[in-house]
Design brief:
The protein is 17% helix and 49% strand. It is α+β, with helices and mostly antiparallel strands. It is elongated.
């Protein structure tokens, strides 16, 4: 009795754990993006075993949508790892049916998807306008890039062309030739491989309109050239009969496996073009037509050998089902015999080849495979499509009100109309800014998701500019005045004693007549009484001094009788000043909206015309004009114009009107949120040295300073403009 109860408890406990495990819905954990400008691969990782997913493209191939049924997104959002120039943005959202990822690409792409345990892989490749070279194509092909790659023990020479073209592989397999081609001047024409590489050296040569790519390889290396879009991939492996030490070994199937794996990495394998016998034989051995029709497929089943003659196809299918561990169900109209001989091939590849040879197809669901004629499967698909269309036509219509908070409903209505069926309609209530959509439930869910994704807060940007201007001025003025008088006369009791000249008077003759300079009055107190000028300077080079500016020192020497007088005055002035002006205008605006803030004065000035003197006004103001744009990585791109004008009352016109000092900067720049950038600066320096002197005497060493006036000036001005953008509502506007 206890044993029965224990077993019953274990069964209930197991059922409880099973129900809890089943209740946990699958979730997407991260998205990894890797690739280049033309190709990329997106890996979606999550907690699901065998995901149910669908992949489709919109916007003419520029948006790839991956829908994972029954999946959810974590509360913190999906972590996006890696980057590619092909995939520009990744947006994840939750729908009524599961999770949805939108991959925005820079150019139209085509996609291929496959699933593994806990992962979904989506491979993207840019769509070229003309993948196949046409004989009518005009213009030379440009050889733009040649580089070596080594991967998994295989060497590849990848040749990049400006467009797809034909090539010729030489009979000895040592060179590729391109007719009507030329070499880019930036191309490196000689490459060297690693010591362990099969390719030792690559040379590019040009002669008479033909480009030749030559390779030097190790002994026993074999190469096969294929074209993938605008690239030529030249693959090298060790020969079928050559081992690492040169001995003969049987490796035919390994060689084919390496080439097949290499083709599995190329997305344009169906468009291979070659003109040599090697490439033609290679193309005939690989089922490229099947691969091109079904897309890329890499076989990973257990390798087997098959050798049958006139064997019933049902027995062959049972054998493959046993090897692969799957269940195979065949339709009633599947019949016939098969004669095959295969060595070391994956069982799933053998199944594909056999079904193709008999005109059959398969539908796989988990580990169950149903085999039927292709015509039957096509009819079933057409019937399923017809049922789907009929369900859409018969499904009841519903009306849903979708409010728009931050945008205009009239602008979003055009985007919403693209998601509706032929029976659906959309209208706008402008008063409440609400979309009124009517359609089936599935389409209405997509409409709500679209509006929720697009209807976000418009970023608001606070732009702060700082205009810093520093001015320093230095001036030094040193001058000298000296003179005197000498008198020989009877009045002073010292005549010359001769009849002529009996009286002699000598005095300085440089008067002081300019306003603001030192005068000579009082230098010779006896000069006026004796008829001599009070300004008796022989050298009159004073500095400009006066009240509140500079200083002067006078010295007067004279005899007892006043017959001989010597007068000296030294004057000097020096000024040193620093001015710093800081202007900081700031303004808040929406993304992609121009804003202006200004402050200034109107300066009156006179205009003389035939009607008389009129008064006009000139505006001098500080102005900031900016148009910001917030990028996806939270940076701010701005077109900014800053103007700072001010009147200069030190420099006036003849009528006394001041001049206008103008400072202006206009530029485009990209600044991260919250960072400060110096958008420009102006530095000017005016320095001068002026010497006024008496000719000849001023050039005398040392004593020449008694005949000179020296003026030294140095004026410096520096202007710097700083800009700091800040996104005010960053968390709400950039939550995606």
């Amino acid at each position: 009795m206890r044993t029965v109860r224990a077993r019953t408890g274990l069964i209930l406990l197991a059922a409880l754990f099973a129900s809890l495990a089943g209740a946990q819905s699958p979730a997407i954990r991260s998205v990894e993006v890797r690739g280049e400008a033309r190709r990329a691969e997106v890996a979606i990782r999550g907690s699901f075993t065998v995901p149910e997913y669908a992949v489709r493209t919109t916007d003419q191939g520029r948006t790839v949508i991956v829908e994972v049924g029954g999946a959810a997104l974590p509360d913190a959002g999906v972590e996006v790892l890696g980057s590619s120039r092909l995939v520009t943005a990744t947006v994840a959202s939750t729908t009524a049916h599961g999770a949805r990822l939108e991959l925005s690409t820079s150019v139209p792409v085509r996609h291929q998807a496959r699933a593994a345990r806990g992962r979904i892989y989506v491979r993207l490749e840019a769509v070229t306008e003309s993948p196949e070279p046409s004989p009518e194509a005009t213009g030379d092909v440009v050889l733009e890039d040649v580089h070596l790659e080594r991967r998994d023990g295989r060497d590849r020479v990848v040749v990049g062309l400006s467009r797809a073209t034909r090539f010729t592989l030489a009979d000895d397999g040592g060179s590729l030739r391109f007719a009507a081609a030329r070499v880019s001047p930036r191309l490196r024409r000689t490459l060297r491989g690693l010591p362990e590489s099969l390719v030792r050296r690559v040379r590019v040569r040009y002669a008479r309109g033909q480009v030749e790519v030559q390779v030097e390889t190790q002994e026993g290396a074999e190469g096969t050239a294929i074209r993938s879009g605008d690239r030529i991939v030249w693959m090298f492996t060790r020969g079928r009969n050559a081992g690492p030490d040169g001995r003969t070994v049987a490796r035919e199937h390994d060689y084919r496996d390496e080439i097949d794996a290499e083709l599995g990495e190329l997305t344009d394998a169906a468009a291979l073009v070659g003109e040599s016998t090697d490439v033609a034989a290679f193309l005939s051995d690989v089922p490229l037509q099947v691969r091109g029709a079904r897309g890329e497929r890499r076989y990973s089943g257990r390798r087997i050998d098959l050798d049958f003659k006139d064997a019933d196809i049902h027995n062959i299918l049972r054998l493959l089902a046993e090897v692969g561990g799957v269940n195979v169900v065949t339709a009633d109209d599947v019949s016939g015999t098969v004669t095959i001989r295969m060595r070391n091939v994956p069982w799933d590849q053998a199944l594909d080849v056999i079904l193709q040879a008999k005109g059959l197809g398969l539908v796989r669901q988990g580990n169950l495979i149903r085999v039927a004629p292709l015509a039957t499967l096509e009819a079933e698909r057409e019937a399923a499509i017809a049922r789907r269309k009929q369900q859409v036509q018969l499904a009841p219509l519903e009306t849903r009100l979708v409010p728009v908070s931050y945008g205009l409903a009239t602008e979003l209505s055009a985007r919403v109309a693209e998601l509706l069926s032929d029976r659906g309609s959309v209208s706008v209530d402008e008063r409440t800014n609400v979309l009124i959509a009517r359609d089936i439930v599935e389409n209405l869910d997509d409409v709500e998701e679209l509006v929720r994704t697009l209807d976000t807060q418009t970023p608001q940007v606070l732009i702060e500019a700082r205009i810093v201007e520093a001015t320093s001025d230095y001036r030094r003025d040193v001058g000298i005045q000296w003179g005197g008088d000498l008198l020989y006369s009877a009045n002073t009791g010292n005549p010359t004693g001769i009849r002529f000249p009996s009286n002699i008077g000598l005095a300085g003759g440089n008067p002081t007549a300019q306003a603001g300079q030192l005068t000579g009055a009082g230098v010779s107190p006896f000069g006026q009484a004796r008829g001599l000028s009070a300004d008796n300077f022989a050298v009159n080079l004073p500095a400009i001094v006066g009240q509140g500016d500079g200083g002067a020192l006078g010295l007067s020497l004279g005899s007892i009788g006043g017959n001989v007088n010597l007068n000296v005055r030294l004057s000097a002035a020096e000024s040193n000043g620093t001015v710093r002006i800081i202007s900081s205008p700031r303004i808040l605006t929406l993304d992609n909206q121009e804003a202006t803030i200004a402050q200034g004065t109107l300066i009156p000035f006179s205009q003389v015309s035939a009607q008389g003197v009129n008064t006009a006004f000139q505006e001098a103001r500080l102005e900031l004009t900016v148009r910001p744009h917030v990028t996806a990585d939270a940076s701010v791109a701005m077109h900014i114009q800053i103007t700072r004008n001010e009147p200069d009352f030190t420099n006036v016109s003849v009528r006394g009107d001041p001049t206008i000092l103008e400072r202006e900067a206009e530029t485009d720049l990209l600044v991260p949120d919250g960072n400060t950038a110096v958008i420009g600066g102006i530095y000017t320096r005016n320095s001068g040295r002026t010497v006024n002197q008496v000719p000849f005497f001023g050039d005398i060493p040392v004593l020449g300073v008694l005949f000179q006036r020296r003026i030294v000036t140095d004026t410096r001005n520096e202007l710097l403009i700083f800009v700091t953008p800040r996104i005010v509502n960053r968390a709400e506007a950039l939550r995606n």
